[in-house]
Design goal:
Elements lengths: L2 H8 L3 H9 L6 H11 L3 H4 L3 H13 L1 E5 L9 H8 L3 E5 L4 H4 L2 H12 L3 E7 L4 H10 L4 H18 L4 E5 L5 E6 L2 E6 L11 E5 L6 H15 L1 E2 L2 H5 L2
Organism: Streptomyces xantholiticus
Protein name: XRE family transcriptional regulator
C-alpha cells in the first residue's frame, strides 16, 4: 500500500502520513484506529503510546457482550438469533458441530441466507486427520471422527440442493469453535479433558479498533484458506 493509498483511504493529507513514517509523529486516535483497521493489525503494533494501549484494551473488553461458563448455558435460541441477523457473513468453524447439523431450523436459515446473497461457509474437521483424532482423545471419547461423519451425513441434502453454501474440511488444531454472523461471534473455547459443550462461550460484538473480534475472524479466514472441498465420498463414507 502506498502513502497515497493510505491517505486516500483514511482521508488525510499524504504529507501527514509521511510524517508518521519518517518523523515518528503519532496520529490522532481516530486515525490510528482507521489505519490499523485498514492494515488489519492491532493499533499497538503501529503506535505504542500509553493512551493507545489503554484505549485499545478498553475497546477489546467492550467487544465482550457476555461470557457463559458452559456452552449448554447459552440460551437455546441465541445461535439462530445471531445468524438470523446476519446479512453478509455466516461462518461455522468446528470439528463436528453435530448439534447444529441436527437442527432443521438451522438448515432452513442457511438456505434463506445464501439465497439472500450472504456468504455461508461451514468448516468441519477432516475425519481422517491427526488433529481430529487427538481432539477425540483430549475429550476422552475418541469418537470425534464418527461425529464429523454424522454431521456430514446430516448436511448431505443441503450440500446437494444448495451448492452456494461453502463446505470444506480442515486439518487444523482448533483451540476454539467459532460461530460468526457479520459483526457478532460466539467463541466456544476448547478445554483439555472435557467436551466443548462444557467449556466457556464468549459472545463478541465487533468494535472498530477493538481487535478481539478480528483476532478470531482472521483465524476463520486462515483455516478456510487451507481447507479442502468436501467430496462425494466424504458424504457417503465410501
Amino acid at each position: 500500500m502506498t502513502v497515497q493509498d493510505l491517505a486516500d483511504a483514511i482521508e488525510v493529507n499524504p504529507k501527514t502520513v509521511e510524517r508518521w513514517i519518517t518523523q515518528g509523529k503519532v496520529p490522532y486516535r481516530r486515525h490510528q484506529y482507521a489505519t490499523a483497521s485498514l492494515l488489519k493489525v492491532e493499533v499497538t503494533t503501529l503506535w505504542e503510546d500509553s493512551r493507545t494501549v489503554e484505549s485499545a484494551s478498553d475497546l477489546s473488553k467492550a467487544e465482550i457482550v457476555t461470557v457463559y461458563p458452559h456452552r449448554h448455558m447459552v440460551p437455546a435460541g441465541l445461535w439462530r438469533e445471531i445468524y438470523g441477523r446476519a446479512q453478509s457473513h455466516i461462518d461455522v468453524l468446528v470439528y463436528s458441530g453435530l448439534w447444529l447439523s441436527e437442527d432443521p431450523l438451522f438448515h432452513d436459515l442457511l438456505k434463506a441466507k445464501v439465497q439472500g446473497n450472504a456468504q455461508v461457509r461451514i468448516l468441519l474437521g477432516d475425519p481422517d486427520c491427526a488433529a481430529v483424532k487427538q481432539r477425540g482423545i483430549d475429550e476422552g471419547h475418541q469418537i470425534m471422527d464418527g461425529k464429523i461423519r454424522n454431521a456430514l451425513m446430516n448436511y448431505r441434502p443441503l450440500f446437494a440442493s444448495h451448492p452456494d453454501i461453502g463446505f470444506r474440511l480442515h486439518d487444523a488444531t482448533l483451540y476454539n469453535s467459532l460461530f460468526r454472523a457479520d459483526d457478532e461471534m460466539l467463541v466456544n473455547t476448547h478445554v483439555y479433558g472435557i467436551g466443548a459443550y462444557m467449556a466457556p462461550v464468549l459472545h463478541l460484538r465487533r468494535l472498530p479498533g477493538g481487535g478481539l473480534f478480528d483476532t478470531y475472524a482472521n483465524s476463520i479466514e486462515q483455516t478456510w484458506g487451507g481447507a479442502r472441498q468436501v467430496m462425494d465420498h466424504d458424504l457417503t463414507g465410501a
